[in-house]
Design goal:
about 150 residues, mainly alpha, flat
């Protein structure tokens, strides 16, 4: 009888340990499922893809005439923005290629970083041109509404 009690105690301990391990495992899987994929696994979309949705979001919050001005101004400059964005993507891809190449060439990496800087500046210039053109064409009420609808700075 005393051996049966001893075995039963170990069975109880094993059951408690098993339940704890299962709860930890289920908690870890639930957290991964609820949080989604880890950051970095799926890179953010290129700026020209995100910008179109952002422009449409802003246009919906404006009066009809001002929303149309925003859409038309963006459409007129979209090709230039897309080209500048793709040039930036190509420049960043070049940095990755230079880093992967053996033997390592610091001069080539410096040149690749310079290309990234130039491409980023070109995209920034295109976006500033777009913003300037839009703000010049909007009505005063449309400008106020647009400024209020922008996200706060980080």
């Amino acid at each position: 009888m005393s051996e049966w009690v001893r075995n039963n105690r170990w069975v109880s301990v094993a059951l408690v340990v098993s339940v704890c391990c299962n709860l930890i495992f289920v908690g870890a899987l639930s957290a991964r499922w609820l949080m989604g994929p880890p950051f970095g696994r799926f890179p953010p979309p290129p700026p020209h893809h995100a910008l179109g949705g952002f422009v449409e979001h802003l246009a919906r919050g404006l009066p009809d005439a001002d929303g149309q001005v925003l859409r038309l101004t963006f459409s007129a400059q979209r090709d230039e923005i897309v080209a500048a964005s793709r040039a930036g993507e190509d420049a960043r891809a070049e940095v990755a290629k230079v880093l992967a190449r053996e033997p390592f060439d610091p001069a080539r990496l410096s040149h690749a970083f310079d290309r990234v800087s130039v491409a980023n500046r070109a995209l920034e210039d295109r976006l500033q041109t777009l913003v300037f053109a839009v703000l010049n064409a909007l009505s005063p009420d449309g400008r106020r509404m647009l400024i209020r609808s922008l996200p706060p700075p980080p």
